[in-house]
Write a structure and sequence with these properties.
This protein has four helices and seven strands, in the order βββαβαβαββα. The chain is an alpha+beta fold and 131 residues long. A four-stranded mixed sheet has the order 5-4-6-7. It has a three-stranded antiparallel sheet with strand order 1-2-3. The radius of gyration is 25 Å and the shape is globular. It starts with a strand and ends in a 5-residue tail after the last helix.
Length: 131
């Protein structure tokens, strides 16, 4: 048997058969709380650093980026270091032409940084963290 819904003026909806009463306001409030919880959660940064082995420039970029993330992103990031000697396909897919290269995948928009990542102000601006 199909359930028919009777609209009640106070914002509640109930099934005509009386087996279930739904409070639309409670549903809306629950939805709004969920949206607010997601909006108040800080953005998680998805970062990929492409390096060429254990060269001094690659090691410096890794150290600079880890320091930057710990100081400015705290626990709101995911960092993946990719050695393009060991994974040349990944470098090709991302069209990496220089190393080290940092790619910020999320939050949008995608951004690329090339070099040893020692310029903190440039990273802050590029990641949308500067005021």
């Amino acid at each position: 048997m199909a359930n028919l819904v009777d609209n009640v003026p106070n914002g509640n909806a109930r099934r005509i058969d009386g087996s279930l009463v739904e409070n639309v306001r409670d549903s809306a409030a629950s939805y709004e709380q969920t949206v607010h919880r997601h909006q108040s959660h800080r953005l998680e940064y998805i970062l990929r650093l492409y390096v060429t082995g254990s060269t001094p420039r690659s090691l410096k970029a890794i150290a600079n980026l880890k320091r930057f993330c710990e100081e400015h992103l705290h626990d709101d990031y995911e960092l993946q270091v990719i050695d393009i000697y060991k994974n040349p396909d990944a470098a090709r897919e991302e069209q990496i032409i220089a190393s080290p290269t940092l790619i910020k995948r999320l939050p949008a928009p995608l951004r690329r940084f090339v070099g040893d990542l020692s310029n903190t102000q440039k990273l802050l601006t590029g990641l949308g963290l500067s005021e």
